[in-house]
Task: structure prediction
Amino acid sequence: MDNKRFKPDLIDQVHNLQQQGRQSYRQAYFQSAQDFYTQAINQTQIFQALNINISDEHTIINDQSRCDLYHDLSKVYIRQDQYDQAIEYVLESQRIAKQLQDQVRTARCLDRLGEIKLLKNQYHQALQDLNHSLEIKLDVLGNNGDYNLDIAESYHILSKIYCAQDRLVKSYSNCKKALDIRIKLLDENDLDLIESYLMKIQIYMQQSKFEKALHILDKYVAIALKMFHGKSNYYIIAKLYNDIGVIYTYQSKYKEALSLLDLSLKYRVNLFGDSHTHIAESYNNIGNVYYYQSKYNDAMLMYEKSLHVRLELLGDSHTHVAESYDSIGNWYCIQSKYKEALPMYVKSLDIRLKLLKDNHIGVAKSYNNLSRYYYRQATYNEALSMCQKCLKIVSQSLGDNHGQVAKLYYIMGRIYYNQASNDKALSMFKKSLNIASKSLLDKHIYIGELYYNIGIVYTYQSKYDEALSMFQKSLSIHSTSSSGDNQTGCFKII
Result:
């Protein structure tokens, strides 16, 4: 055999295998992508083993292929939560890129390293990597940046980092930049484009803009079903069903939520087995539905499964672990097992304060849970302190007229009422009503609840005519509202 001809043939084989791997990856067939990439790497090693004089051009092409393959394989391992293997391959890719003095390939490696650091909650280091990567790409590509998928990738990961930090304006800005580029260059069923839309959905959900999120989700469920019709890979469908299920949980549509979350879990188990962060997410979300249905034993089973997987994969200092501690703390609290609940809430808060900024919405969630814990034990001063800390963060993050703010004013009203501070209680209830009236239907059951509480305060203030008016409004709403049908998630803090 002519070895000089054999080497270019090997390069073609490597290229074909890499293209098949990328096609599998874009369709979310991660195991197939891994197999193709591994075969291609093996071929490059055969190339290196042929110690024959050959043109520098072919050597460079082979090194570029090896660099890209190690990088692409690291992406697959990230998807599979195998971060140690991902780091190993991306560092090898980075070594080759630097040897080639290829700045764009070096920047791609920074994207991957930053993504891994993001998944490990190392936000500051992740931002450093991504900003450095974007700087390199913009410098090398110049005016072509608006039409380059490498630029879009950096914007996309930056959006994820800012979202995790609760810096939603920056997150949305970077998400839009990535999405605009990908819309121009990718098919509508390409995984990267879908993930940009999923990022947009995540931002909307974090802002409690559920109708906007559902609008995108409904569109992409149809695309995903078409994309994977007759196939066994449902990675995207599982993600879409999970997100819709979470929104339905916020909206108190528990039957619909559970159906979709169960389907999502089924697909995820088929894809990843029993040990993956997506599996843990599904367990926790299903547990939330059971919790709100008062099926507490079923809820605890899900929460414990979620915590076990998260501790195994992420260690004991991660925001996902904090979420599991929250869920278990809520379970103990609703069961009046307060001695067991407090350590869970404290662990959650400690993790978040360690990993996040003091004004992060996740920290507010911990304060809210502690407020509820103290309230249930009638230690109202502590409950009020926690609620005020939560309110400060939520107002800054979501705005003064957000539904979560209305809910917190309501809780503070209940605290003041129990402290016999009726004027302060009335002020809080009215603030809550003012916000809720702007965003909810007049006959919403939450509005009815506020009217009732205002009526109680008026009664204690001997303002009987005003009290009667409030009770009549409340009765009118409750008599015409079917349970759960007109609930909205912006007034539920999970």
Q: What stands out?
A: The first helix runs from residue 3 to 26. The chain is about 80% helix and 0% strand. The two ends are 67 Å apart (CA to CA).
